[in-house]
């Protein structure tokens, strides 16, 4: 009797753990080459796509290897983990991006160290962040998170709620809106995944038509290890890639993305 291979084992085979500077350099080069190829397929300039390596669950000693290989910014889902790594790796020239859901009681931590916050989806969080940032005397780049898959387990605004949300954000002058972020549906069906990315692009385009200033540069943060090439084809300007750079992680995805079953960097085949 055969049994299905656990998703973690499949991911481990697909994404071997990087344990040296050479491993990281090779993985980074491969991801960048794939980004470039995807961009060129649709007539885009690869330079318009930013690679954000995601280091969640990765220990500090391996992060140091990744930085030595060229990583200069890192994304983390959990504020507590990000803040700890920021302290422990303070000697490194790294900008930290918080890309996971934020509770208002963690706003002070984000305001203290983050270079950007990619999961803004409530005015309560906007107000809490702005208050802390005003006290610190600094601004913060933010992305508005949109739930493009209509899954109840996902955080983010419904697309229809985005215009009213954007209209309120100028009240929080320390927040600099850069664009939008989404998590696509966790599926092996590429067209379902692609549809999510198209929804985000449409949200951006409609918002830009109403008030170009409300969306800043109008960046689109979408795509992870399993689907970043599709995201680039659909207009992503930032892709958040973890396992394809660092290797498969054993931590259950539900710890970072509530309600998920497949790999949190994309569907595991």
TrEMBL record:
HAMAP family (UniProt xref): PLP_homeostasis (MF_02087)
N6-(pyridoxal phosphate)lysine PTM positions: 56
Lineage: Bacteria, Bacillati, Actinomycetota, Actinomycetes, Micrococcales
Cofactor(s), by name: pyridoxal 5'-phosphate
Record-given protein name: Pyridoxal phosphate homeostasis protein
Keyword Flavoprotein in annotation: no
InterPro entries: Ala_racemase_N (IPR001608), PLP-binding_barrel (IPR029066), PyrdxlP_homeostasis (IPR011078)
Keyword list, A-Z: Pyridoxal phosphate
UniProt xrefs under PANTHER family: PROLINE SYNTHETASE CO-TRANSCRIBED BACTERIAL HOMOLOG PROTEIN (PTHR10146), PYRIDOXAL PHOSPHATE HOMEOSTASIS PROTEIN (PTHR10146:SF14)
Pfam families linked to this entry: Ala_racemase_N
Similarity comment: family membership: Belongs to the pyridoxal phosphate-binding protein YggS/PROSC family.
Annotated function: Pyridoxal 5'-phosphate (PLP)-binding protein, which is involved in PLP homeostasis.
GO molecular function, one term: pyridoxal phosphate binding
Domain of life: Bacteria
Domain named Alanine racemase N-terminal: residues: 27-249
